[in-house]
Predict the structure of Dihydroorotase.
Amino acid sequence: MTPTRLEITRPDDWHLHLRDGDALASVIAHTAQRFARAIVMPNLKPPVTTVAQAEDYRRRILASLPAGARFRPLMTLYLTENTPVEEIARAKASDSVFAVKYYPAGATTNSDSGVRELSRVHAVLEAMQKHELPLLLHGEVTDPDVDIFDRERVFIERYLLPLQARFPALRMVLEHITTRDAVEFVRGAPANVAATITAHHLLLNRNALFAGGIRPHNYCAPILKRETHRVALLQAATSGDAHFFLGTDSAPHPREAKETACGCAGLYTAHAALELYAEAFEQAGRLDRLEAFASFHGADFYRLPRNRERIALERTPWMVPDLYPLAGSTCTPMRAGESVAWSLVETTTP
Ligand code: DOR
Ligand code: ZN
Protein backbone atom coordinates (compact mmCIF):
# COMPACT_ATOMS: atom_id res chain seq x y z
CA MET A 1 0.00 0.00 0.00
CA THR A 2 1.19 3.52 -0.77
CA PRO A 3 2.30 5.43 2.32
CA THR A 4 0.58 8.78 2.88
CA ARG A 5 3.71 10.55 4.04
CA LEU A 6 7.26 10.33 2.82
CA GLU A 7 10.24 11.83 4.59
CA ILE A 8 13.64 11.84 2.91
CA THR A 9 16.99 13.60 3.02
CA ARG A 10 16.65 16.97 1.31
CA PRO A 11 17.38 16.39 -2.40
CA ASP A 12 19.54 18.23 -4.94
CA ASP A 13 18.73 19.08 -8.55
CA TRP A 14 21.69 18.06 -10.71
CA HIS A 15 20.46 19.87 -13.87
CA LEU A 16 18.57 23.15 -13.74
CA HIS A 17 17.94 26.28 -15.79
CA LEU A 18 17.54 29.33 -13.56
CA ARG A 19 17.83 32.03 -16.26
CA ASP A 20 18.86 35.53 -15.15
CA GLY A 21 17.49 38.92 -14.11
CA ASP A 22 13.73 39.14 -13.55
CA ALA A 23 13.14 35.58 -14.79
CA LEU A 24 15.61 34.27 -12.21
CA ALA A 25 13.80 36.21 -9.50
CA SER A 26 10.48 34.71 -10.67
CA VAL A 27 11.54 31.05 -10.51
CA ILE A 28 14.24 30.65 -7.85
CA ALA A 29 11.90 30.18 -4.87
CA HIS A 30 10.37 27.00 -6.31
CA THR A 31 13.76 25.31 -6.49
CA ALA A 32 15.02 26.69 -3.17
CA GLN A 33 11.93 25.37 -1.36
CA ARG A 34 12.69 21.82 -2.42
CA PHE A 35 16.39 21.43 -3.14
CA ALA A 36 19.51 22.13 -1.09
CA ARG A 37 21.74 22.53 -4.14
CA ALA A 38 21.44 22.62 -7.91
CA ILE A 39 23.81 22.34 -10.84
CA VAL A 40 22.99 25.53 -12.72
CA MET A 41 23.12 25.46 -16.51
CA PRO A 42 25.25 28.14 -18.23
CA ASN A 43 23.15 28.70 -21.39
CA LEU A 44 22.46 32.37 -20.74
CA LYS A 45 22.70 35.05 -23.42
CA PRO A 46 25.68 35.48 -23.68
CA PRO A 47 26.72 32.08 -22.27
CA VAL A 48 28.67 31.68 -19.03
CA THR A 49 32.08 30.65 -20.35
CA THR A 50 34.55 31.80 -17.68
CA VAL A 51 34.95 31.27 -13.95
CA ALA A 52 34.64 35.04 -13.44
CA GLN A 53 31.28 35.07 -15.26
CA ALA A 54 30.10 32.02 -13.31
CA GLU A 55 30.98 33.72 -10.04
CA ASP A 56 29.08 36.87 -11.04
CA TYR A 57 26.07 34.76 -12.02
CA ARG A 58 26.31 32.90 -8.71
CA ARG A 59 26.18 36.22 -6.83
CA ARG A 60 23.08 37.23 -8.79
CA ILE A 61 21.42 33.92 -7.89
CA LEU A 62 22.24 34.32 -4.20
CA ALA A 63 20.94 37.92 -4.27
CA SER A 64 17.62 36.77 -5.73
CA LEU A 65 16.94 34.11 -3.07
CA PRO A 66 14.00 34.70 -0.75
CA ALA A 67 15.01 35.74 2.79
CA GLY A 68 16.04 32.80 4.92
CA ALA A 69 16.42 30.37 1.99
CA ARG A 70 19.20 27.82 2.36
CA PHE A 71 20.15 27.00 -1.19
CA ARG A 72 23.55 26.59 -2.78
CA PRO A 73 23.96 27.09 -6.54
CA LEU A 74 26.68 24.90 -8.08
CA MET A 75 27.94 26.66 -11.19
CA THR A 76 28.96 25.30 -14.58
CA LEU A 77 30.91 26.64 -17.55
CA TYR A 78 29.67 26.56 -21.12
CA LEU A 79 32.21 24.77 -23.29
CA THR A 80 33.05 26.53 -26.55
CA GLU A 81 35.67 25.84 -29.18
CA ASN A 82 37.52 28.86 -27.75
CA THR A 83 37.55 27.78 -24.10
CA PRO A 84 41.19 28.17 -22.99
CA VAL A 85 42.75 25.09 -21.39
CA GLU A 86 43.79 27.23 -18.39
CA GLU A 87 40.14 27.92 -17.58
CA ILE A 88 39.82 24.30 -16.44
CA ALA A 89 42.49 24.67 -13.74
CA ARG A 90 40.84 27.93 -12.67
CA ALA A 91 37.47 26.18 -12.47
CA LYS A 92 38.90 23.32 -10.45
CA ALA A 93 40.59 25.74 -8.04
CA SER A 94 37.39 27.78 -7.59
CA ASP A 95 34.89 26.78 -4.95
CA SER A 96 32.02 27.74 -7.24
CA VAL A 97 32.36 25.81 -10.54
CA PHE A 98 31.60 22.08 -10.46
CA ALA A 99 31.31 21.03 -14.09
CA VAL A 100 31.54 22.04 -17.75
CA LYS A 101 28.58 21.78 -20.09
CA TYR A 102 28.88 20.50 -23.65
CA TYR A 103 26.17 21.66 -26.06
CA PRO A 104 26.45 20.53 -29.66
CA ALA A 105 26.01 23.82 -31.56
CA GLY A 106 22.36 24.30 -32.47
CA ALA A 107 20.98 21.45 -30.33
CA THR A 108 18.74 23.57 -28.12
CA THR A 109 18.03 26.94 -26.46
CA ASN A 110 21.08 29.28 -26.64
CA SER A 111 23.41 26.57 -27.91
CA ASP A 112 24.82 28.55 -30.86
CA SER A 113 28.19 28.99 -29.12
CA GLY A 114 28.45 25.25 -28.55
CA VAL A 115 30.84 22.76 -30.09
CA ARG A 116 30.78 22.09 -33.84
CA GLU A 117 33.88 19.90 -34.10
CA LEU A 118 34.73 17.75 -31.09
CA SER A 119 38.44 17.52 -31.93
CA ARG A 120 38.73 21.28 -31.31
CA VAL A 121 38.05 20.75 -27.60
CA HIS A 122 40.26 17.69 -27.07
CA ALA A 123 42.89 19.67 -25.15
CA VAL A 124 40.23 21.06 -22.81
CA LEU A 125 38.78 17.58 -22.27
CA GLU A 126 42.27 16.28 -21.52
CA ALA A 127 42.58 18.96 -18.82
CA MET A 128 39.15 18.08 -17.44
CA GLN A 129 40.12 14.43 -17.26
CA LYS A 130 43.31 15.38 -15.40
CA HIS A 131 41.52 17.74 -12.99
CA GLU A 132 38.55 15.37 -12.56
CA LEU A 133 36.08 18.06 -13.54
CA PRO A 134 32.83 16.49 -14.84
CA LEU A 135 31.69 17.03 -18.43
CA LEU A 136 27.91 17.39 -18.70
CA LEU A 137 26.66 16.30 -22.11
CA HIS A 138 23.64 17.40 -24.03
CA GLY A 139 23.75 14.11 -25.89
CA GLU A 140 22.07 14.74 -29.23
CA VAL A 141 23.44 15.02 -32.73
CA THR A 142 22.28 18.09 -34.63
CA ASP A 143 22.65 16.61 -38.12
CA PRO A 144 19.37 17.52 -39.85
CA ASP A 145 19.50 14.20 -41.70
CA VAL A 146 19.08 12.30 -38.43
CA ASP A 147 15.48 11.79 -37.33
CA ILE A 148 14.74 13.88 -34.23
CA PHE A 149 13.72 10.78 -32.26
CA ASP A 150 17.07 9.09 -33.04
CA ARG A 151 19.37 11.97 -32.14
CA GLU A 152 20.31 10.68 -28.70
CA ARG A 153 21.03 7.13 -29.86
CA VAL A 154 23.13 8.37 -32.76
CA PHE A 155 25.05 10.72 -30.44
CA ILE A 156 26.04 7.74 -28.29
CA GLU A 157 27.32 5.81 -31.30
CA ARG A 158 29.03 8.69 -33.11
CA TYR A 159 30.41 10.78 -30.26
CA LEU A 160 30.07 9.24 -26.83
CA LEU A 161 31.73 5.88 -27.50
CA PRO A 162 34.76 7.50 -29.22
CA LEU A 163 34.92 10.11 -26.43
CA GLN A 164 34.93 7.40 -23.81
CA ALA A 165 37.64 5.48 -25.67
CA ARG A 166 39.86 8.57 -25.92
CA PHE A 167 39.24 9.85 -22.37
CA PRO A 168 38.44 6.74 -20.33
CA ALA A 169 38.84 8.47 -16.96
CA LEU A 170 36.86 11.60 -17.89
CA ARG A 171 33.95 12.09 -15.50
CA MET A 172 30.83 12.44 -17.63
CA VAL A 173 27.13 12.93 -17.03
CA LEU A 174 24.81 12.17 -19.92
CA GLU A 175 22.14 14.74 -19.15
CA HIS A 176 18.36 14.28 -19.33
CA ILE A 177 18.49 10.84 -20.92
CA THR A 178 15.40 9.83 -22.88
CA THR A 179 16.03 6.43 -24.44
CA ARG A 180 16.54 2.78 -23.61
CA ASP A 181 19.80 3.06 -25.58
CA ALA A 182 21.12 5.70 -23.16
CA VAL A 183 19.99 3.67 -20.14
CA GLU A 184 21.86 0.63 -21.44
CA PHE A 185 24.99 2.61 -22.25
CA VAL A 186 25.12 4.25 -18.81
CA ARG A 187 24.19 1.12 -16.89
CA GLY A 188 27.09 -0.74 -18.48
CA ALA A 189 29.58 2.11 -18.02
CA PRO A 190 32.13 2.45 -15.21
CA ALA A 191 31.43 4.69 -12.20
CA ASN A 192 32.94 7.81 -13.82
CA VAL A 193 29.91 7.90 -16.15
CA ALA A 194 26.43 8.80 -14.90
CA ALA A 195 23.10 10.16 -16.15
CA THR A 196 20.38 12.50 -14.98
CA ILE A 197 16.70 11.82 -15.63
CA THR A 198 13.93 14.44 -15.62
CA ALA A 199 10.51 14.06 -14.05
CA HIS A 200 8.81 14.84 -17.36
CA HIS A 201 10.64 12.07 -19.22
CA LEU A 202 9.61 9.66 -16.45
CA LEU A 203 5.94 10.68 -16.63
CA LEU A 204 5.27 11.50 -20.28
CA ASN A 205 5.76 9.77 -23.59
CA ARG A 206 5.61 11.37 -27.01
CA ASN A 207 1.84 11.03 -27.24
CA ALA A 208 1.75 13.96 -24.80
CA LEU A 209 2.98 16.18 -27.65
CA PHE A 210 -0.16 15.52 -29.67
CA ALA A 211 -2.94 14.79 -27.16
CA GLY A 212 -6.01 16.12 -28.99
CA GLY A 213 -3.88 18.70 -30.81
CA ILE A 214 -0.36 20.05 -30.67
CA ARG A 215 0.89 20.68 -27.14
CA PRO A 216 3.77 23.15 -27.21
CA HIS A 217 4.20 23.07 -23.43
CA ASN A 218 5.31 19.44 -23.66
CA TYR A 219 7.98 20.21 -26.23
CA CYS A 220 11.53 19.89 -24.89
CA ALA A 221 14.99 18.85 -25.98
CA PRO A 222 15.65 15.97 -26.10
CA ILE A 223 12.10 15.42 -27.31
CA LEU A 224 9.77 13.01 -25.50
CA LYS A 225 10.14 9.46 -26.79
CA ARG A 226 7.86 6.45 -27.21
CA GLU A 227 6.47 4.50 -24.24
CA THR A 228 9.08 1.71 -24.32
CA HIS A 229 11.77 4.32 -23.67
CA ARG A 230 9.81 5.94 -20.83
CA VAL A 231 9.45 2.52 -19.21
CA ALA A 232 13.22 1.94 -19.51
CA LEU A 233 13.91 5.31 -17.87
CA LEU A 234 11.49 4.58 -15.03
CA GLN A 235 13.08 1.21 -14.50
CA ALA A 236 16.57 2.78 -14.41
CA ALA A 237 15.59 5.59 -12.03
CA THR A 238 13.89 3.22 -9.62
CA SER A 239 16.47 0.41 -9.87
CA GLY A 240 18.74 1.71 -7.12
CA ASP A 241 21.64 1.89 -9.60
CA ALA A 242 23.90 4.80 -8.55
CA HIS A 243 24.62 5.71 -12.19
CA PHE A 244 21.23 7.48 -12.29
CA PHE A 245 20.15 10.57 -10.41
CA LEU A 246 17.71 13.45 -10.34
CA GLY A 247 18.06 16.40 -12.73
CA THR A 248 14.86 18.28 -13.50
CA ASP A 249 16.00 20.27 -16.54
CA SER A 250 13.25 22.68 -15.47
CA ALA A 251 13.48 25.30 -18.23
CA PRO A 252 11.05 28.23 -18.01
CA HIS A 253 10.03 30.10 -21.14
CA PRO A 254 7.45 32.87 -21.43
CA ARG A 255 4.14 31.51 -22.60
CA GLU A 256 4.27 33.49 -25.85
CA ALA A 257 7.65 31.93 -26.71
CA LYS A 258 6.10 28.45 -26.46
CA GLU A 259 2.69 29.15 -28.01
CA THR A 260 3.93 30.30 -31.38
CA ALA A 261 4.75 29.01 -34.85
CA CYS A 262 8.29 28.04 -33.79
CA GLY A 263 8.16 27.46 -30.06
CA CYS A 264 11.04 27.08 -27.59
CA ALA A 265 12.02 23.75 -26.03
CA GLY A 266 11.63 23.27 -22.30
CA LEU A 267 9.18 22.25 -19.58
CA TYR A 268 8.85 24.20 -16.36
CA THR A 269 8.71 21.68 -13.52
CA ALA A 270 10.44 23.43 -10.60
CA HIS A 271 7.09 24.31 -8.96
CA ALA A 272 6.39 20.60 -8.31
CA ALA A 273 9.67 18.91 -9.04
CA LEU A 274 10.04 16.48 -6.16
CA GLU A 275 6.29 15.85 -6.06
CA LEU A 276 6.33 14.78 -9.73
CA TYR A 277 9.26 12.41 -9.16
CA ALA A 278 7.30 10.93 -6.22
CA GLU A 279 4.40 10.24 -8.60
CA ALA A 280 6.73 8.43 -11.00
CA PHE A 281 8.33 6.35 -8.24
CA GLU A 282 4.89 5.54 -6.83
CA GLN A 283 3.81 4.40 -10.30
CA ALA A 284 6.74 1.96 -10.28
CA GLY A 285 5.92 0.82 -6.73
CA ARG A 286 9.37 2.00 -5.61
CA LEU A 287 8.85 5.04 -3.40
CA ASP A 288 11.43 3.45 -1.10
CA ARG A 289 14.09 4.21 -3.73
CA LEU A 290 13.26 7.88 -4.28
CA GLU A 291 15.68 9.06 -1.59
CA ALA A 292 18.78 7.45 -3.08
CA PHE A 293 17.92 8.75 -6.58
CA ALA A 294 17.06 12.27 -5.41
CA SER A 295 19.43 12.79 -2.49
CA PHE A 296 22.39 10.37 -2.54
CA HIS A 297 23.58 9.28 -5.99
CA GLY A 298 24.21 12.77 -7.37
CA ALA A 299 26.03 14.02 -4.29
CA ASP A 300 28.19 10.89 -4.30
CA PHE A 301 29.03 11.30 -8.00
CA TYR A 302 29.99 14.96 -7.51
CA ARG A 303 31.93 13.97 -4.37
CA LEU A 304 29.97 16.40 -2.24
CA PRO A 305 28.58 15.61 1.20
CA ARG A 306 25.03 14.28 1.32
CA ASN A 307 22.57 16.78 2.79
CA ARG A 308 21.57 16.41 6.42
CA GLU A 309 18.26 18.28 6.35
CA ARG A 310 15.08 16.33 5.72
CA ILE A 311 12.06 17.10 3.58
CA ALA A 312 8.57 15.65 3.79
CA LEU A 313 5.90 14.97 1.19
CA GLU A 314 2.30 14.07 1.87
CA ARG A 315 -0.05 12.20 -0.41
CA THR A 316 -2.45 15.12 -0.67
CA PRO A 317 -3.36 16.19 -4.21
CA TRP A 318 -3.20 19.87 -5.13
CA MET A 319 -4.11 21.87 -8.20
CA VAL A 320 -1.30 23.40 -10.19
CA PRO A 321 -2.15 26.99 -11.20
CA ASP A 322 -2.66 27.77 -14.89
CA LEU A 323 0.37 30.01 -14.86
CA TYR A 324 3.17 31.46 -12.79
CA PRO A 325 4.60 34.96 -13.25
CA LEU A 326 7.80 35.05 -15.32
CA ALA A 327 9.61 38.36 -15.72
CA GLY A 328 6.70 40.53 -16.81
CA SER A 329 5.09 37.63 -18.65
CA THR A 330 3.80 34.23 -17.55
CA CYS A 331 5.02 30.68 -17.69
CA THR A 332 2.77 27.64 -18.13
CA PRO A 333 3.98 24.98 -15.70
CA MET A 334 3.80 21.21 -16.17
CA ARG A 335 0.29 20.01 -15.14
CA ALA A 336 -1.15 23.54 -15.45
CA GLY A 337 -4.75 23.43 -14.22
CA GLU A 338 -4.41 19.77 -13.27
CA SER A 339 -3.54 17.98 -10.06
CA VAL A 340 -0.30 16.61 -8.64
CA ALA A 341 -0.70 13.71 -6.23
CA TRP A 342 1.96 14.67 -3.70
CA SER A 343 2.40 17.92 -1.72
CA LEU A 344 5.43 19.40 -0.10
CA VAL A 345 5.02 19.61 3.67
CA GLU A 346 8.07 21.01 5.38
CA THR A 347 11.81 20.86 5.70
CA THR A 348 13.54 20.21 8.97
CA THR A 349 17.08 20.78 10.14
CA PRO A 350 18.77 17.81 11.81
O1 DOR B 1 14.13 21.58 -23.36
C1 DOR B 1 15.20 22.14 -23.11
N1 DOR B 1 15.24 23.42 -22.69
N2 DOR B 1 16.33 21.47 -23.31
C2 DOR B 1 17.52 22.07 -23.21
O2 DOR B 1 18.50 21.41 -23.41
C3 DOR B 1 17.62 23.51 -22.89
C4 DOR B 1 16.44 23.99 -22.21
C5 DOR B 1 16.36 25.49 -22.14
O3 DOR B 1 17.35 26.14 -21.79
O4 DOR B 1 15.29 26.05 -22.42
ZN1 ZN C 1 18.94 21.54 -19.75
Observations:
- The first strand starts at residue 5 and ends at 9.
- The pocket of DOR (ligand 1) is lined by residues 17, 43, 108-109, 138, 220-221, 249, 251, 265-266 (CB under 6 Å).
- The longest helix spans residues 151-166.
- The mean pLDDT is 96.
